[in-house]
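1st attempt posting a full record on here, be nice pls
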Amino acid sequence: MTPHATYRLQLQPSFPFASAAAAVPYLASLGISHLHLSPVWEAVPGSTHGYDVTDPTRVRAELGGEEGLRALAATAREHGLGLVLDLVPNHMAAVPRYNPALWEVLREGPASPYARWFDIDWAAGGDRVLLPVLGGPIGDELGALSVDGAELHYGDHRFPLRAGTEGLPLPALLDAQFYRLGWWRLARTELTYRRFFTVSELIGVRVEDPEVFDATHAKVVELVRDGVVTGLRIDHPDGLADPEGYLHRLDAATGGACWTVVEKILTGAEQLPATWPVAGTTGYDTLRHIDGLLTDPVGADALAGQFRRYANPAGDRGGYWDATVRRAAHRVVTRELAAETAALTRLAERACAEDMALRDHAPWALRAAVRELLVRVPVYRPYGSGDETALPLKAAASARATFSVAEEATAVDTVRDLALGRLGESPDRVAFRVRFAQTCSAVRAKAVEDTAFYRYTPLVSANEVGGDPGRPAVGPDEFHAHCGRLARDWPTGGVVLTTHDTKRSADVRARIAVLSQCPERWEEFLRRITAETAHQEGGRAPDPQLAWVTWQTAIGFGFPYGERLRSALLKGAREAALQTSWTEPNPAYEQALAEFVAAGPAGQPLHSVALFARALAPHVRAQVLAATLLQLTVPGVPDLYQGTERTYLALVDPDNRDPFTEEAADEKTALTCAALRLRAERPEVFGASGTYAPLAVRGAAAAHCVAYSRTGQVLVAVTRLSLRLERAGGWEDTEVLLPEGVWSDLLTSGRRLTGGPVRAADLFGPGPVALLVRAEG
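the predicted structure (as tokens):
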């Protein structure tokens, strides 16, 4: 059954299946149709997210086990709800003591029946896999290693010993294993297994192998066939060797009985492959269009100029988005993903060795070509042969220009042809194409989401998963075109505003996005608040960019939770890797950051922040309600993140992953319930056969109203950029042309409107949004 609305719950030991079951009556009363559960598979003990899967064949005992999951499903069914599960096919936890399959591989080596499960390059490691778990070089850590029976111990780590090696002296014992314990820093250059992005604690799984797929998916298939599960969210399909092949295999295994969406990030005009057997994406593409619609393009440009002058990010070529991304990508491929770049170079050498005409490419030239092309792929990954959208000719030309010798630059053309599958289907060439695509997704995610988003920060509300900070605003025509494509091609895909992965919750982003409508107020506020804090102990920010981000975040966050704010800002500074980083922390800078947060936004200046925010409150309300109604009524299935039916203010994980709690309802809750109940009552309006049509708006303030019809039965209208509207004099003569008939307003008691031109001032009289339904009789 296709959901009409889902509700995401973050399961964890402190919020297991039983807690979710207790919340079902409340969640059902909201009007949702399905619970959307974070990963339920056996994971590292204590995990609060569940993506560090240790055994996909078992339901997690800490959550209540399979019995608890089936009981939750039964409770949900009693209240008319189904279950959607988060499936994690790309990776498992590289923690041997908790991962039984990996334990067997480390004990038995390449001959283990489980060796085919994991994406390990045994040849590169001489039949030994590097485990980068040591706190220092092995010579310094020998004293911390000990043997206990058939196990090797290092702190909390446990490793199996190869049969017959238990009695060897420690150095010989270490050399005799099918693994090599190494300093954690070696992961950057020496790793011999595919990992999730740069997280060495997560090892890639080879689900492209039919036997591995069958073994790792047996339990979820059973749950689907038993009717326990009716929907699936596929985590990170870009990491898979063959995403489309995987999805077809999954569709066949589940008998096509699941509503399935994929966590696929689309970039720019990129479209989801039409041949994928899914309902659509999880919805980050629509998040960008909703946020962009509620961002003022003129003000956003002004903020970008202010940012360049204030923060002076000279290291990123004057503070421009494209240059920031390119610089970040170069760092990623030469540092964080150097091992992956080296693996691609080895594959390229082997692929070139098959053809006499290609054998003279020097390894360094192939390495440079791989690196220069990786940083120029404009999307997360190419799909299939000949995907020139993902690796256009201009990218190759730009890469060739980095070589000083023209003959050596021809390596770029060879690597591009290999990546696009133009040089044949030999095993080595297929292997290169697959690994290049997988590595692209890691480079893009790390360079954009985890680096550039924290370096280029004129309007931090635009720095969201799937977003484009270089072009943060979306006009009404572009918004309508996007929704029209969804209605035509992916009418039942996902629509999100807040997730467990968003950098800031939708309500935080809405507060910050209002700044795009008043950049001059922001500039004046920043000047005043800087002067106010300059003479306080710790009140001077360690650098201007941090000050800029801190005060925008404080405006969006809205309350003095100093530790939560400090943690988010510290994570951002480490991700940006300009002043400090995860691998080379700068204690002095980080201490100055903490002192600035304590003395600034979490100290006395909070009063000034509150006054500034209070002046913008009516326009924040308009932003929040508009975004909420759009999410709930545009084509697709809205996925509400836990707590977002009310005002929900959260920053980047782990701040946004606290257990679910019921709290008091507010105006946003009433709007959410009205829209969800309408979706439940009229599934034909919003479902696969539903249509989407913009309504004509005319008059002086037409650009401030976005209105549309769903299947001719429901009308939606929202106020756009209300602060700009107010400054321009209000609605004046602006009219919305309603279709013929009588329309009942669901957000006010008993109000009816007749089809034809209606003054916007009358349509929006009670509030900044309108939800109308065709009246019967």
